Amino acid sequence: MNVIGVIPARYDSTRFPGKPFAKIMGKPMLQWVYEAAAKTPSFSKVFIATDDNRVKDLAESFKASVIMTPAEAPSGSDRVWAAVKDLNADIVINVQGDEPLIRPEVLEDLVQAMKKNPEWKMATLGKKLQPQDLENFNTAKVVVNKNSEAMYFSRLPIPFGRVKDFSTTACFKHIGIYGFQKSFLQEFCETPPIEIELLEALEQLRALYLGAKIGVVETQFECLGVDIPSDVEKIENVMRKNE
Questions:
Q1: Among the four 55, 59, 201, 207, which has the fewest Cβ within 10 Å?
Q2: Dist CA 203 CA 74 (whole Å)
Q3: Are 80 and 94 in contact (CB under 8 A)?
């Protein structure tokens, strides 16, 4: 199976313009993500997908392959589809461009799970939920079935606990890195956003609406992305501890 990694990256982030250029331990954030993706064993190729020549020049400065995509792409998934639609691929991994702590073994786990479960049209990651995460509206949660497939995603506390001794073992913290079968990525991106997706601000609900099986691969990886400039210091602190 041919597996391609794609890193969508744009310059005009509302909360952090020029985010791909943010220096983390002296290196641009986009380079951290690309170098991790490039070490993923199953990736036959890794591309950075952007609509901005400044990002293109940055990517090419560290020898990354770049695909230019339309500026009007409404989401990262749409940018990924624009990048791969004419390429030969069976599985496409959407690697978030603002996750400088991502590790190749995490991406490889996602790929291997998709290879073992060909009925999964899409796959993502989940981490054991801590009790304090349940009430955090900024944390997306996913409830899974016995086959490690997503039943529903929400930012609200799910499942709702009617008892005080409530266990969160039925639910995971959602880590927003996605794998797609290429054929389903096309269907997903050609389907307009649906009501529950817009209400929850979670695009993966569109895949459930379409009847797709979404595999949830358990991971110990702690998602810590860069949304605003102050997040850079947090990332650097984690990197220092890991050293």
A1: 201
A2: 11
A3: yes
